[in-house]
């Protein structure tokens, strides 16, 4: 008996699982709720963007002309305030003729941050590179060496001060946070109690109070004649504050490590510090990368609070630039949008780097 040919019914073509179309299908148009929300947001943008474009670009004034800005009020933005005041906003009260020094110092520090984020440079000598970067930064900013005129720390300000406060405080706070987190899980009651009191005391007060105590109250407790620079006191306050919050994040990661990992380390005869360094901390820190990055981003923005102790970082330098000039004072919105863009660029870069680290950790676990 001969076999009878039966044609196979046509099947739909395979759906692409990568690319912009696939991303839009899964994230923007996955179901009717997602589609409705997407269409609503698109409609809202279509309604708002033309007017925003007219205000920001078409009717805007870009030259540093206060009269033209006054004439364009209500019609377009006055970006001339940024053109006129950008050096004061970026560098604060630093001497005008010497502002190339904070510019170069900031480029060195930002370059060090970029290099530190690249896996290829994660070597032991990176510590020496950072020590050199910090030395160059403080020599350029403070002067008094190599023929540079001396500039007191109360004249530092703007973007260099913001980046320096964030970077140094984070570098000092991270190892302190790890030690405090380990101390909270220690077997010795004295160490555990001290760490608990430190964390609960610092977390129980706002950052403004910590900065106020470090700047105004601390000098009352030091011996007469001993002076500690206000910048050092502010860095100490920021470090202690951020370390307390980060310690709780690290402690959460330590608690998430399975008990079997500790037992396996004991069976291999590893010491306490070998167990923490080789087995426990790598796993604990990898589980709390998003929370640690949230803390980093929060500190980067919280540096704006140092204005209360007369250190004019980026936000304080902006207020300093506008409050001293009546004709540019009405255009605060445009100036604040300028520094908002700077803050957003820094926070967005840290957020994307956090996602990259998470993907690298996920790939390593998959292997």
Describe this structure in words.
This protein is mainly alpha-helical and 367 residues long. The protein has 2 domains: 58-94 and 151-366, Orthogonal Bundle (MetI-like fold), CATH 1.10.3720.10; 99-150. It is built from 15 helices and 1 strand. The chain is flat and about 105 Å long. The relative contact order is 0.09.
Features:
MetI-like fold; 367 residues; mainly alpha
Give the secondary structure arrangement, pairings included.
Layout: H1 20-27, H2 32-58, H3 66-71, H4 80-91, H5 100-116, H6 125-142, H7 158-184, H8 189-203, H9 207-217, H10 230-256, H11 259-267, H12 272-287, H13 289-302, E1 312-313, H14 314-323, H15 332-366
Helix pairs in contact: 4-7, 4-14, 5-6, 5-7, 7-8, 7-10, 7-14, 8-10, 9-10, 10-12, 10-13, 13-15, 14-15
In short:
Helix 7 (158-184) runs antiparallel to helix 8 (189-203). The mean pLDDT is 87. It contains 15 helices and one strand.
Compute the number of strand runs: 1
Q: What string, H for helix and E for strand, traces the elements in order?
A: HHHHHHHHHHHHHEHH
Shape: flat
What is the radius of gyration computed over CA atoms, rounded to a whole number of angstroms? 27 Å
Low-confidence stretches are none
* Overall tally of domains: 2
Tally of contiguous helical segments:
15
For CATH, the homologous superfamily of the largest domain is named as MetI-like
CATH fold descriptor of the largest domain: MetI-like fold
CATH architectural name of the largest domain: Orthogonal Bundle
Question: Which percent band covers the strand fraction?
Answer: under 5%
- What class would the helix/strand composition place it in? mainly alpha
Q: Kindly report how far apart the N and C termini lie.
A: 55 Å
| DSSP helix fraction | 55-70%
**Biggest β-sheet description:** none
Mean pLDDT: 87
